[in-house]
Amino acid sequence: MSGGISVVLAAEHLGSVFGFPITNALVMTWLLMVLLIGFAFFFGRRVKMVPGKLQAGVEWAFEGALAYMAETLESEELARKFFPLVATIFLFVALINELEFFPGVGSVGFFHAGRFLPLFRAPTTDLNFTLALALISFFVIEVTGISMLGFFRHMSRYVNLRSPMGFVVGLLETLSNLGRIITFSFRLFGNIFAGEVMVLVAGYFLPFFLPAPLMGFEMFIGLVQAAVFAILTLFFIKLAIADPAEAH
Amino acid sequence: MHQLFSAFGIQLNLLIAQAVNFGLVMLALWYFLYKPVMSTLDERQKKIAKAVQDADEAAQKLAQADDTAAARVRAAETEADGIVASARETASSERARIVSDAEARAEQVAKDAEARAKEEGERMRRESEKEIARLAILAAEKVLSKHHA
Question: I need a labelling partner for B119 at 20 to 30 A (CA). Which of A184, B20, B75, B135 fits?
Fold first, then answer.
C-alpha cells in the first residue's frame, strides 16, 4: 500500500460461506442491522405514556414525518401504511452514512495476497445495497399503483394506444420509471462513494486539516441523501396512486 | 452489461442478500419501534381527547349547575316576595277590619251610653213627677185636714 490512492468501485470480497460471497459492505450491513435493531428493541420496550427526553424526540420526529407523509399522500391511512418503508429507508441509510467515517470503517482490515482488505465498508458505497434499495422502492411503487388503481388502469400510463401522442407519453413514462431504478441507486452510491474518495484525496492534499471538515460536510450530505431517497420514494408512491387519466 | 456489473461488483446473490437485510430491518423496526411508538401516540391522543371532552362536560355541567342554582334562587326570591306581599296585604286588611270593628263597637258603646242616659233621665223625670204629685197630694191632704180640724 505504498503510495497512491486505491479506489475500488466494488465492495471487497472477504471470503465466502458455503459458496456465498461475503463482502465488507455486507459485514457492515449486518453490524448496522444489529445496532439499529438493538436500539429499536431496547427503545421500543421502554416506551412510556409519559415520555422521557429521548422518547419525546423520537415521537416528535415520528409525528412530524407522519404529518408530512399524510399531507403529501393526502391520506392519514396511506401515510401510516407507507411509514415503515419510508422511515426505514431514511433511518437505515442515514445511520450507514453517518457511521461511514467512524474510526475503523475502511481502516480496520487485513492483508490478503498482498492487498489490503478493509473489514467494513459503508453499504451505501456498494451498488448491491443501493440497487437492492432502489428495486424495493421501485416494486413498492408499482405494486402500490396496481393495488390502488387496478392493473389495467395503472398500466394505461405506460401503454396508451388511444392516440399517437398518448403512446409516446406512455413510452416516456415507462422509460422514466425504469430509469428511476438507475437514478435511485446511482444517486446514493455516487454521492457517498464520491464523498469517501474526496476525503481520501483531501488527505493527500492537506492531511489532518482538510479531511475533518470535509467529513462533517459528507455526513451532512449523507443525511441529505437519506432524506432524498426516502422522500423521492414517497413522491413516486404519490404519483403512482394518482389517476393517470387525471395526471395528464 | 456484464462488464458494468463486474466493475461495480453487482452480484445477484449479494443483491438479494441486501434486499433481505433491508426487509429484516424494516420488519424489526416495525415490530420493535414503529408499532409501540405509534400505539403510544394513538393512546395518548385518545386520552387527551377524552380528558378535553371530560373537561368540557364538567364545565358544561358546572355552568348548568350555576344556572340551576341561579334559577332556584330567583324562584325563591319571587316566592319570598309573594309571601311578603300577601302577608302585607293580609296584615293591612286585618288592620282595616280591626279598626272598623273597633270603630263600630265604639259607636255602639256610645249609642248605648246615650240611650241609657236618656232612659235614666226619663226615669228620673218620671220619678220626680211622681214625687211632686205625691207631695202635692200630701200637701193637699194636710190643707184639707187643717180645714176639717
Answer: B135
Residues 108-127 of A with CB under 8 A from B: 123, 126-127
Contacts of A243 (CB under 8 A, 6+ apart): A149, A153
H helix or E strand, kind and range, residue A192: helix A164-205
The minimum CA-CA distance between B6 and chain A, rounded to whole Å, is 8
The complex scores an ipTM of: 0.90
Surface of A (132-151) touching B: CB under 8 A:
132-133, 135-136
Could you tell me the CA-to-CA distances from A4 to A9, A107, A201, A203, B122 in Å, in that order? 16, 16, 10, 12, 169
Q: DSSP letter at A21?
A: E
Q: Which of A20, A92, A132 is closest, CB to CB, to B19?
A: A132
**Hey, where are the domains in chain B?**
2-148
Residue pLDDT, tens place only, A164-196: 998 999 999 999 999 999 999 999 999 999 999
DSSP 3-state of A20? strand
Q: Are strands A115-118 and A13-17 parallel, antiparallel or unpaired?
A: unpaired
User: Is residue A1 pLDDT above 50, yes or no?
Assistant: no
Q: What is the mean pLDDT of chain A?
A: 90
The CA-based angle A81-A85-A89, given to 5 degrees, is: 155
Q: State the best of B32, B43, B46 to mutate against chain A, taking most chain A CBs within 10 Å.
A: B32
Q: Confidence class of residue B4 from pLDDT cuts 50, 70 and 90?
A: confident
Q: Which of residues 42-61 of B touch A (CB under 8 A)?
A: 43-44, 47
